[in-house]
Amino acid sequence: MATGEPELAGRVALVTGANTGIGRLTATRLAAHGAHVFVAGRSEERTSGVLDDIRALGRSPPAQFLPLDLGDFASVRACANAFLARNLPLHLLINNAGLAGARGLTKSGFEMAFGVNHVGHFLLTQLLLERVRASAPARIVTVASRAHRRVRGIDWADVRRPTSTLLGIREYCVSKLANALFSAELGRRLQSSGVTTYSLHPGVIDTDIWRHVPAPLCALNRWRLGPVGDGVKTTLHCALAASAASESGLYYSEARPTSPSEAAGNLALAAELWRRSAEWTC
Fold it and tell me: How many CB atoms are closer than 10 A to CB 214?
């Protein structure tokens, strides 16, 4: 256990996209600290590795899998209902799953990156929010990216159309801006509730998030990517650090609060994103 990170016996965590990369390491580290971890993803087979990792720790209770396709509202609702039916508290919700470079529309009718990275997590968070509030003190951590700095706003028509750029990079940046805006607005709405929120840049990390980018470009990109172990540090800081307990709605990089882009700090844009996201998912 790392110095300063608390024992989590009796605490319950749900991590999306925990089958690989930062999510897998996040889930494993939380379990190592004693948390009862739920890992949510599209494939139980692909998630078996992290379940085995956690089982090997010898901690109790073992991790459990929840089916989740963030691009499909029916799947998101089924995932939330499956968790809520267990009548457990929820102290840590880690909105980690994400994709980049995929093109098209989600099953629920959104540009692929925006639909998975933002809208799916927005809906999941809303469905679990009352349980999180009842479990306070609790934290909601959303993995964004410094890529949000590359765009200045959100085109509301574009997020309902198929991916238009060749590699989907601009769309990915928009989805990460939405992550930062959502987390900040959620923090404002949860003031004095005992629930704190965090968005973060994990670093430029070698994960599977770019698996949809053509192989030659993906290989070229990898020379500048850091190890997954570096990427989990800021997520764990936001989830566990005592110093972050009194902070909410902030954006983090290298395990400390930092200023997001001007667009990510736009209160009107955050409120409009929330309003539209609530309408889309009602």
Answer: 12
**What tokens appear for 236 in the block?**
């764990």
Residue spans of the domains in the chain: they are: 12-276
Write the pLDDT tens digit of every residue in 165-197: 999 999 999 999 999 999 999 999 999 999 999
Q: Which two tokens stand for residue 186?
A: 């959620």
What is the CATH architecture assignment of 12-276? 3-Layer(aba) Sandwich (3.40)
Assign 264 to helix, strand or coil. Answer: helix
Distance in angstroms (rounded) separating the CA atoms of residues 41 and 136:
25
Q: What is the pLDDT of residues 214-273, one digit of tens each?
A: 555 444 444 444 455 677 999 999 999 999 999 999 999 999 999 999 999 999 999 999
- Supply the residues annotated as catalytic: 172
CB 205 within 8 A of CB 230: yes
Residue 200's nearest CA partner among 241, 143, 157 is: 143
